[in-house]
Amino acid sequence: MRTFLKFFISGFLLVVIVVTAGVAQFTEKAEFGKFAITNATIHTVSDGVIEHGVVLINGETIEFVGKNAKITSDYHRINAAGKHLYPGFMDAGTQLGLQEIGAVAVTKDQAELGEFNPHVRAFTAINPSSVSIPVTRVNGVTHVVSLPVSGRLSGKATLIDLYGYSPDSMAVSPNAALHLNWPTAQKGGAGDQRSEEEVEKAYKKNLKELNEFWDRAVFYDDMMMSYEEGSADKEAPDTHKKLEAMREVLSGDIPVMISVDRKQDILNALEWTKKHPDVHFILAGVQEGWRVADEIAEAGLPCLVSTLFTPERAYDNYQRPYQNPAELHEAGVKVAIATGEIENVRNAPYHAGYAAAYGLGKEEALKAITLNAAEIFDVADRLGSIEEGKQANLFLSDGDPFEPTTHIDQVFIRGYKIPMVSRHSQLYEKYLNRGAVEH
């Protein structure tokens, strides 16, 4: 009876959440077709700023960028005088679309049982009706990387547009990267009562398990390649789902995103990556990256960073998180913004804003949340800048999008003119004049 009640309550909560999510979404459809955005200040990112420029959108694609365009009558004109046009922002590390309510287990799809789950795909678990998606995109964030987070090898992240009715219609790169949580050689904070010897022992054990799984994957890949290149009359080896999922990683087709924060852990991870020269690696988190920026640059690995966190060490200056992207960039590291958030992915522009104010500069901060991120995930041919032939992920604002007071006027995702409605705007309208009596 208790089991039945448990499933009944879980099912009821899921229905309530789905209904609530449906209410929270926009009530009008996105527009699609041909649009002419005129008189805009165009921040191309890849080719400077164009004053009083024109961008033509034809379907999903940017058709023209420049001045003096010939605009036929079949284009819907948008006069952007006094407005700024930017490429859509990209948050390179989130859990958006994988969790709705942290306290309700049936709405959490970012974690699986087990330590090694390279076969798990965030793409299959994305909820297109997530309440957090409209809240995020109306702030200029048009595409994100969403990733599983549990265990050692958590699974494969997905790169999605923030518009669509199914994961398939949202996907930019269904399998964008394999997420690896690096085993730490540090204590887990003030509450960690382990001795230094115990910490070291746990680290060596975790690293040994990772290496053993990796070696098995390499052996399996070699075996399968040998079979595929050999005679067709040979009996096929048994397929192993987890090891099969590692093959596109070992071949370098998709990168490995290593989440690692502390100085020594970063150095340990860098040393480990040298043993796998055919694999592409990305560092994520990297909260103490500024301490080993030269070593990261020498390794040639890009970094996905945030700025809104508290320093790990009590004696570090409070500005260090804000300065981290700039110090990495100065050392020669390519940086991109990754908030690590769920419902607060909407704050990605302000992570970039802090980085800009604390040494990175506005131009590089803009790259960090657009073109750099697209290059790191190998989608710069489609996203990251305003260029002819690229996907029409754009937004119009009345000022600097790194400033919280700036208003985002319009967002385009894959050429769709998105209704500027979210749960936040609906609640604002609902309670704006509550209890007011007109006379």
Automatic annotation (TrEMBL):
For this protein, the record's SUPFAM superfamilies field holds: Composite domain of metallo-dependent hydrolases (SSF51338), Metallo-dependent hydrolases (SSF51556)
Residues in domain Amidohydrolase-related?
A: 323-409
Instruction: Tell me one GO molecular function of this protein.
Output: hydrolase activity, acting on carbon-nitrogen (but not peptide) bonds
Q: What residue stretch is flagged as signal peptide?
A: none
- What is the protein name for this chain? Imidazolonepropionase
Origin organism is Fodinibius roseus
